[in-house]
Amino acid sequence: MLSRLSQITAMTCRIWTSARASSLVIVLCLLWLMVCRKLKYLNLCGCVKAASDKALKTIGYNCRQLQSLNLGWCENVGDVGVMSLAYGCPDLRALDLCGCVLITGYCIIGDSIYDSVIALANNCLHLRSLGLYYCQNITDRAMYSLAHSRVKNKHEMWESMKNRYMEEGLVNLNISQCTALTPPAVQAVCDSFPSLHTCSGRHSLIISGCLNLTSVHCACADLAHRAASALPHPAH
Ligand SMILES: [Zn+2]
Fold first, then answer.
1. DSSP alpha helices (H): ranges in 63-218?
2. Phi, psi torsion values for 93, nearest 5 degrees
3. Do 102 and 75 contact (CB within 8 A), yes or no?
């Protein structure tokens, strides 16, 4: 039985979503996570009660092969939990933290400040999709951390690895309704990740609901502008 459980690679935990999930059920689910060492996909969306920083610590410690994790609307998840994921799940490719309102992008442990978003960027080099929809406490600091980590990692990369690395990095970032962010910080992220686009059709940097971010634009806007200025002016 135990060995069968440990072979599970994908799971959506509906039972945790129930508001009536008892403490016993939650403990059993945490114990189950401890044997799921091959888990690749985990959907805990709406599991407010169970998905805590403690649960993420368990996941980070045991599920090192995890590639996709949905923590949507898990209001008890904070930056300490994100740090656990960053250090424990190096293969993470998609992380949805939408509605995790406790997340700011950094946390204070003892006398030190730790950047959870920079930990994600530095340790999860395959991270392609990050959902921060309605993380209304996420700050510019997190955006600058993300942008600078990208530049720093690029410089430290071997020449032969650089091309591969250029193809990676974020291809989807949802910061809709992150109303605390300002245009320069988001523009820095957009400039650092060439696969992020605000242009219609590609639309992979999602900023809807942030009226102050309408000036943020992807590289396509510059290219279009340059192409337009290169055209011969019509004769008057
Ligand atoms: Zn574009």
1. 79-88, 116-123, 140-156, 159-167, 183-192
2. -110, -30
3. yes
Q: What distance in angstroms lies between residue 116's CA and the mean position of ligand 1's atoms? A: 28
| d(CA 25, ligand 1 centre) in Å | 46
Cα of 4 from ligand 1 centre, angstroms: 46
Distance from residue 131's CA to the centre of ligand 1 (Å): 19
Question: pLDDT tens digits for 73-105?
Answer: 999 999 999 999 999 999 999 999 999 999 999
Indicate the pTM of the whole model. 0.84
The DSSP 8-state label assigned to residue 136 in this structure reads T
Cα separation, 70 vs 98, whole angstroms: 9
Interval between CA 107 and ligand 1 midpoint (Å)? 33
What is the domain partition of the chain in residue ranges? 2-152+170-228
User: What sign does the dihedral 63-69-74-78 (CA atoms) show?
Assistant: positive
Q: How far, in Å, is the centroid of ligand 1 from the Cα of 201?
A: 8
Ligand 1 centre distance from Cα of residue 224 (Å): 10
What CATH class does 2-152+170-228 carry?
alpha beta
